[in-house]
Amino acid sequence: MKRIRKAVIPVAGMGTRFLPATKSIPKEMLTIVDRPTIQYIVEEVVASGVDAVVLITSEGKSAIENHFDYNFQLDTVLRQKNKRALRDELTTISNLIDIVSVRQKEPLGLGHAIWMARNVIGDEPFLVLLGDDLVRSKKPCCRQMIDLYNQVKESIVAIQRVPMDQTFQYGIVEGMETEFDRTYKVKRMVEKPAPGTSDSDMAIIGRYLLMPEIFDFLGTTTPGHGGEIQLTDALLALSNRRGMYAYEFEGKRYDAGDKLGYLKAIVDIGLEHPTLGGPLREHLNSICSSKDCC
Ligand code: G1P
């Protein structure tokens, strides 16, 4: 069985949900406490034991590649100023993992973005992480999925239960329980179902472990929901050819591509920060105990 060595992270999107903040900077570079969102995603990949990241990029996204690169000028200035700890931190980031970039030349949808990775991935199973979905957990979400893959040896989509009135915002999976903990055999999948058309509350979140056959389907998938080539449509086709599992991951997920989800991530991660956590908690307590707080 082939080891999971590569993770694809599509970052080509325009970030319209976050305008005007994302007019001239990639949404993946918006800061959560002290690092850009994309760093949390890449750190999850690294902590899951994967060797390389494939970024699917577009014009205007070079700040992401630069963030993980070595910056000679900056390093020289920090050395002259004797900023040892900062230099070490930046060196750690630039040595995190090998990163390869592929351009998605047209915004044709998530399925098309993943298809762009086909020549870099080749004939091996791989991970996909969506940058909007931040997952905090003891064992990294991707590691949980790799451990399950070692048992089921098939594709896996990570899911979480969502209120029924929110299912139209997600890819929804219908499936049956299996002998594996928190794991369902996929029967049907639909991208952003209209209310009342699916009675499942199992929503796909942005973590996938895919067999390379997915590329056969992505190459022939026609535009679906929103006129875009949808990954979910290709997944359904793949699940019909060979097995696919839905895994209810352990941990907490934030929709960091949504303004409120992003704020929640900042507060929760801020509260856990070694030096900022205490003062932030005091501040929040003082707001909550003041008369102005509702
Ligand atoms: C994408 C997927 C969808 C999934 C969601 C999770 O949609 O197409 O199936 O449920 O990510 O965040 P998007 O949010 O990019 O529209």
Q: Can you tell me about this structure?
A:
There is one protein chain. This protein has 294 residues and is an alpha/beta fold. It has two domains: 6-257, Alpha-Beta Complex (Spore Coat Polysaccharide Biosynthesis Protein SpsA, Chain A); 258-294, no CATH class. 35% of the residues lie in helices and 24% in strands. The chain has a five-stranded mixed barrel with strand order 8-11-9-10-12. It has a two-stranded antiparallel sheet with strand order 2-3. A two-stranded antiparallel ribbon has the order 7-13. Helix 10 (259-272) packs across helix 11. It is globular. The protein starts with 5 loop residues before the first strand and ends in a 5-residue tail after the last helix. The mean pLDDT is 95.
Which labels suit this protein?
two-stranded antiparallel ribbon; 2 domains; binds 1-O-phosphono-alpha-D-glucopyranose; Spore Coat Polysaccharide Biosynthesis Protein SpsA, Chain A; 13 strands; 24% strand; 5-stranded mixed beta barrel; 294 residues; alpha/beta; single chain
Topology summary:
Blueprint: E1 6-10, E2 31-32, E3 35-36, H1 37-47, E4 52-57, H2 62-67, H3 72-80, H4 84-94, E5 98-103, H5 110-115, H6 118-121, E6 126-129, E7 133-136, H7 141-152, E8 155-161, E9 171-177, E10 183-191, E11 202-210, H8 214-218, H9 231-241, E12 244-248, E13 252-255, H10 259-272, H11 277-289
Parallel strand pairs: 1-4, 1-6, 4-5, 8-12
Antiparallel strand pairs: 2-3, 6-11, 7-13, 8-11, 9-10, 9-11, 10-12
The structure holds 1-O-phosphono-alpha-D-glucopyranose (G1P).
1-O-phosphono-alpha-D-glucopyranose binds at residues 110, 130, 132-133, 170-171, 191, 203-206, 231-232.
